[in-house]
Specification:
This protein has one helix spanning about 5, and strands at about 10, 15, 30-35, 40-45, 55-60, 65-70, 70-75, 75-80, 90-95, 100-105, 115-120. It is mainly β and about 120 residues long. The strands form three sheets. It has a five-stranded antiparallel beta sheet, with no helix packed on it. The protein has a four-stranded antiparallel beta sheet with strand order 6-5-9-10, with no helix packed on it. The chain has a two-stranded antiparallel sheet with strand order 1-2.
């Protein structure tokens, strides 16, 4: 609070702050950090750039169709009851500015929980 009151006055103990979104720059590809266990896959999607926030994620294993992921928390997305081990993974990501990106074969079939992969855009 001491720093905020240097920027704006405190009224009844509240410092009113306005935020505005700015476009994010990035270096390298979108990152996909895969954690979880055989029955629960949790993927952190980051280094998105542009709008910066992700609105939707789907994953496709080399032996499955597209699977809708659910927002778990922040930019972490999960699937429950789906075992994707032993399959190469492709991701579809939609950002808040409406950009639709497909990242094919981001993770090879030999991926392990705890690994991070660098996605390249494929249309």
């Amino acid at each position: 609070m001491p720093m905020f009151v240097k920027l704006a006055p405190a009224v009844a103990g509240v410092v009113h702050v306005s935020y505005r979104r700015v476009r994010c720059g990035k270096q390298g590809g979108v990152k996909f950090e895969i954690t979880g266990n055989p029955n629960w896959n949790l993927v952190l999607v980051y280094n998105v750039g542009g709008a910066g926030d992700v609105n939707n994620v789907r994953v496709k294993g080399s032996n499955t169709g597209w699977i809708q992921m659910q927002r778990n928390w922040g930019q972490k997305w999960d699937t429950k009851g789906v075992d994707l081990r032993g399959q190469a993974l492709t991701f579809q990501v939609v950002t808040s500015d409406g950009a639709f990106k497909v990242f094919r074969d981001v993770a090879p079939a030999s991926w392990q929980f705890g690994q991070t992969f660098d996605g390249k855009i494929n249309f």
